[in-house]
Amino acid sequence: MTLTDNRTGESIEIPIVNGGVDAGAWKKLLGNIWFADPGFTQTAATESAITELDGEAGILRYRGYPIEQLAEHSTYLEVAYLLIYGELPDAEQYAAWKHEITYHTFIHENVRKRFMEGFHHDAHPMGMLVSAVAALSTFYPESKDIQDPDVRDKQIVRLIAKMPTLAAGAHRFSVGMPFVYPDNRLEFSDNFLSMMWKIAEPEYQADPVLAKALDVLFILHADHEQNCGTTAMRVAGSSHTDPYSATAAAAAALYGPRHGGANEAVIKMLNEIGHVDNVPAYVTAVKEGKGRLQGFGHRVYKNFDPRATIIKKIAYDVFEVTGKNPLLDIALKLEEVALADDYFISRKLYPNVDFYSGLIYQAMGFPIEMFTVLFAIPRTSGWLAHWKELLEQDQKIARPRQLYTGSASRDYVAMDAR
Ligand code: CMC
User: Fold this and answer.
1) Which residue CA neighbors atom 49 of ligand 1 most closely?
2) Among residues 153, 183, 207, 259, which one is catalytic?
3) Does residue 298 form part of some domain?
4) CATH of the domain at 380
5) CB of 174 sitting under 6 A from ligand 1
6) Where are the alpha helices (DSSP H) in 141-207?
7) What does the pLDDT read at residue 186?
8) pTM above the 0.85 mark?
9) Is the CB of 220 under 6 A from ligand 1?
10) Which domain holds residue 242?
């Protein structure tokens, strides 16, 4: 690209590398002219080798492997390893990784008893999770030594392992049930389901179809390159804070209804619609600007969300076991009406990952407040993969510029003269 400053006639050539241009070259010519890009819609904040996403083609790949193949053949723990270390593990590496994760699932009793049980009885489990993850940094002060690769790896294991324990603990507290300790005999998803649902039985046996469906949902949610939560992770991580605090920042960003909170919003919307007959009127109201269709649209996917395609299939597997979610018919009608409507076609708005995931979670018995928590469990591995990559890249602290639009300099006015 050739860039010319029309004020001076000076030019500079900037090569396009990996689909982007280096802002450093721009800086040489136009030092004090900033890119105005709120929401980073046109800004690559980093180079990354973790996840490839082509929104126009509906492509999602982790470390080069298509999401469809991983969802069909892999497990969440294997995918977490792949995201973090860049390659699929061999049998020995996988066994060691699984052992490490399994044996770090317990949380300090003070986190559970004094911290988590200190919340108000109706605390939102996502609020509890965000706070509990941040609190973990005080239990592992060595985690501040982020330049030591062994220390980093240890915190990565701890975070991936403890997230389900914290998540299930938040749920148990919110429904007044006693905490269930992790069971090291169980697989990752089975163990989480045991901590969620176990009552008095000596060993909780999760339905294999449901445990598998949850594991696939974890794979689909594990990473999604520079989304809002991951950006929060990278921004916080760039200040060299410890990984628990950075993960809490990422989880806080995920909490919002425009991001990981959307699956909760979808169920509320479907309940509000109430009946298939009300779908056309609801869509008309959305088109008139009265709210958005939850679970529709995506900043990057402008054709289809490949995760949504996989999830729709899983939904039917789950409903075989649990019975059909009564909201499914409304969701299908909504999808049909919206996909045939010019408002949604022209804006390239398609169902995203959250449109069907909430229906599955609800059919599996999860309360809607747990939906974003279910997103945070697997996304933790993606956040940590980006955190590790950021530190290995030795990136500068995140510190954007602004275009100041406030008052010019003015003198202080005493209160009685205002
Ligand atoms: N329903 C109705 N209209 C919509 C929707 C929607 N869900 N999403 C976007 N639009 C319209 C929007 O009003 C705008 O129209 P116009 O050009 O006439 O002003 C146009 O489409 C472009 O919207 P935008 O807000 O500029 O798009 P964005 O890229 O900033 O927003 C989004 C992306 C996901 C925040 C948005 O589509 C949205 O709010 N969707 C609903 C919430 C949701 O499902 N979020 C989950 C995202 S996937 C999971 C994740 O990664 O977290």
Assistant:
1) 259
2) 259
3) yes
4) 1.10.580.10
5) no
6) 149-174, 188-197
7) 96
8) yes
9) no
10) 40-401
What is the model's pLDDT at position 234? 98
245 and 341 within one domain: yes
Q: What is the number of structural domains in the chain?
A: 2
Residue 39 buriedness (CB in 10 A; 0-12 / 13-18 / 19+) = exposed
- Domain check: are 24 and 44 in the same one? no
Place of tokens 């940094």: 137
Q: Has 240 been annotated as catalytic? A: no
Q: Whose CA is nearest to atom 36 of ligand 1?
A: 297
Residue 13 shares a structural domain with residue 147: no
pLDDT band for position 264 (50/70/90)?
confident
Residues 262, 378 within the same domain: yes
Number of H helices, E strands in the chain: 18, 7
Q: Does residue 388 share a domain with residue 241?
A: yes
Q: Is 73 assigned a catalytic role?
A: no
Determine the pLDDT at residue 191: 97
Is residue 414 assigned to a domain?
Answer: no
CA 300 – ligand 1 centroid, Å: 10
Residue 301 Cβ < 6 Å to ligand 1: no
Contacts by 188-193 with C-beta closer than 8 Å and gap 24+? 188/75, 188/76, 188/77, 188/101, 188/102, 188/164, 188/215, 188/218, 189/76, 189/214, 189/215, 189/218, 191/102, 191/105, 191/164, 192/164, 192/167, 192/168, 192/377
Ligand 1 binding pocket includes 253 (Cβ within 6 Å)? no
Same domain flag for 8 and 144:
no
102 and 237 in a single domain? The answer is yes
Residue 418 within any structural domain of the chain? no
Structural Rg of the chain based on CA atoms: 23
25 pLDDT above the threshold of 90? no
Q: Does residue 406 sit within a domain?
A: no
What pLDDT band is residue 112 in, cutting at 50, 70 and 90? confident
CA of 304 to the centre of ligand 1 (A): 14
| Claim to verify: residue 146 and residue 12 sit in the same structural domain | no
Q: Nearest-CA neighbor of 60 among 360, 304, 416?
A: 304
